[in-house]
Amino acid sequence: MTTTQTRRARDIQAFLRECVEERRELLLRKYEGRTDANSRTKSREIKETYELESILHNGATQNVARAQMATHISKGTHPDTEVKNTTSLRIAPEQFAKHSEAGTHSLQPDGLPIDATGDGAINKRAYIAYWLLQQRFEEKSVLQLLESRDEDAINALHQDAKFAQERADVLVQLARQKCSRFASHTLMKQVYWLVGADVVDDTQYHLLAPLYATSLAHVVHAEISDARFGEANKEARRAYYENQKQPHDGVYREYRNLAIRKMGGSNSQNISHLNSERGGVNYLLDSLPPPAWETQNRPQKFFHIESVFVRFKRDEFVRGLLADLCSLLEKDPKPTKETRQRREAIEQALRATLFDLASAIQRHFPPGWTRDKACKLPLCEQRWLDPERAHLPPRAGHEEEDAAFTNASGWKNEVAVGFAIQINDTLHDHDLPVGQDEAEHWKQAISSAIMPYNASASILESAHG
Fold first, then answer.
1. Could you tell me the residue ranges of all domains in the chain?
2. What is the distance between the alpha carbons of residues 332 and 325, in angstroms, rounded to a whole number?
3. Distance between CA 378 and CA 410 in Å, rounded?
4. Which of 178-192, 400-414, 451-465 has the lowest mean pLDDT?
5. Which residues contact 51 (CB under 8 A, 6 or more apart)?
6. CB under 8 Å to 116, separation ≥6 — which residues?
7. Phi and psi for 368 in degrees, rounded to 5?
């Protein structure tokens, strides 16, 4: 039965057609200007595949029963699991319990990337249909419109109302659970968790089988890729590394010591659609903890010393960095790119560690802790490490001292000079030739770490970069 489409239904259909055309043109660019037989064949396949009616027809008829849309997939744990026999889940972020740790619950429901996973024989056309269902019209995905039985969205699938409804009913099956029960797989990682009291009673255990948080992994991949290759971050990186004397208004982001886990081998689509989009790349963040500064409510640890750098240089991590620096310079290496990168990596680690120490003191020590008579730090370091003291009312009998603290100027430069002297002294102890040029270098290198804890995010991230 042919029906007259409403204007909104025609708008939805035009929107879907536009999405397909844009995708087709994007894929064809790869073969633009190429005349070899393979390029011609690929171009022809793309043109035949990326037609709206073709996608809707094939998506509703081919392998839908073997494909599933999900946020947590079993094939990310082992590729040989099957969606019809092993549980994969599609869960909205708001359905999770809220924890302080980052996870899928931290993502925004709007725009959440939903993955599609399937069995080995799944046809690529089912994935293309999944992609089309993810396009957003009026702030909702096409799938959400179909699931809510939006009449215009359904009628946009075909001129015949009955056929359009049948097609919609099949397409929404992509989002349905294909495994009829909660089930794991013998090849998956599994943990038997005791929930009762009798350790020898098998019925008192729950089987825990972790699923791969594919939606979260895709968001993390996008963030890291933008930090590594995005134009805005490239500009910030260039400003930071090439000309550190010029201020930059943007935020600089850097993720260090990344590991890459490749999933799916030569056929990354065997795992899932989003995994295929990433070329099988899944980033693993560095799990090393930051230096643990024991500063909580114990300012006395910084009493009776002439400089905070005395405490700083005693830290085991800092001693290791300084030892690495001395070892590098003692070899008198050639001024190559590799040498510069090794030296800069040590400098950046020292800067970030000093920033961590100072911010820990500023956060955890009460304002005015440097007023204690046991505090022997120079005025510049007091002003740096106890910034909130400047907002306290002056003490009776100490008005001149407190005014000098509040009105202190040039203290950042003095702190940087003190740091440079300490590093030069360390290098001199190893019989390395150092002088004013080296002191000026260290002074410039550390200046970005000398600031109050509540400084802007851009400066904070630069200190860690």
1. 7-208, 215-284, 299-464
2. 11
3. 13
4. 451-465
5. 20
6. 67, 68, 69, 70, 126, 127, 130, 174, 272, 273, 274
7. 90, 10
CB atoms within 10 A of CB 412: 15
Q: How far apart are CA 91 and CA 68, in angstroms?
A: 13
- Tell me the Ramachandran region of residue 266: left when phi exceeds 0, alpha when psi lies from -120 to 50, beta otherwise: alpha
Q: Is 166 in a helix, a strand, or coil?
A: helix
More confident residue, 353 or 462: 353
For residue 426, give Cα distances in angstroms to 10, 113, 204, 245, 317. 75, 52, 61, 26, 15
CA 120/CA 376 separation, integer angstroms: 70
Could you read off the pLDDT of 65-103 as tens digits, one per residue?
Answer: 677 888 899 998 888 888 888 888 888 888 888 887 888
Token reading at 285: 């963040």
DSSP 121: T
Q: Which helix or strand (DSSP H or E) is residue 436 part of?
A: helix 436-446
pLDDT value of position 257 = 86
* Residue 170 CB partners (closer than 8 Å, separation 6+): 60, 61, 64
Give the pair of three-digit tokens for residue 58. Answer: 């094939």
Residue 248 has pLDDT above 80, yes or no: no
Q: Averaging pLDDT over each range in 126-140, 313-327, 451-465, which range is the top one?
A: 313-327
Q: How far apart are CA 301 and CA 321, in angstroms?
A: 23
**What's residue 224's pLDDT?**
93
Residue with tokens 């075909």: 158
Other Cβ atoms within 10 Å of 393 Cβ, number: 7
Amino acid at 9: A
Write down the residue that tokens 């619950």 correspond to.
105
C-alpha dihedral (144, 146, 148, 150), degrees to nearest 10: 120
Q: Which of 136, 126, 135, 122 is nearest to 55 (CA)?
A: 126
Closest by Cα among 293, 312, 439, 299 to 359: 293
Distance, CA of 27 to CA of 133 (rounded, Å): 19
What are the tens digits of pLDDT across the range 206-247? 989 999 999 999 999 999 999 988 888 888 887 777 765 567
Helix, strand, or coil (residue 292)? coil
Q: What pLDDT score does 463 carry?
A: 35
Euclidean distance between CA atoms 200 and 194, whole angstroms: 10
pLDDT tens, residue by residue, 400-429: 999 999 998 889 899 999 888 888 888 888
Q: Which class for 244: exposed (0-12), middle (13-18), buried (19 or more C-beta within 10 A)?
A: middle
**Predicted pLDDT at 379:** 93
Residue found by looking up tokens 């120079």 in the block: 378
Give the phi and the psi of residue 151 in degrees, each rounded to 5.
-60, -40
The letter for the amino acid at 68 is: Q
